[in-house]
Amino acid sequence: MQKPFILITGDDSVRGEGIILVKRVVEKFADYQLIATKDQQSAVSGKLNFRGGEWGTEIVDGHEAVWVDGSPGDAVNFAYDYLDRKPDIVISGMNIGENVDNSTLASGTFSAALRATY
Q: What pLDDT, on a 0 to 100 scale, did the predictor assign at position 106?
């Protein structure tokens, strides 16, 4: 049986502590790719740049990760174009801070997850 394929993304950058924690849990049972923002992008909501932007790779916690110089939504859009296999699941976050109440509207983490549903 084929393992599930998971896209791990978020707004705290490919080096964020929360995203690395998620990676460590997921790698035990699934194939995955980490594609997230180059730098911390909290509270950018659903912002999209549509300018192409730069991207690159770096080793994060022993695995090649892809960073996108843009918003969390840009990272998800890039991932869907970049990946050979459509993810079975998209995990956005864990991150610093809460994503509850009115902050959900401004959350880059929440927006990346929502973007993945399009």
A: 53
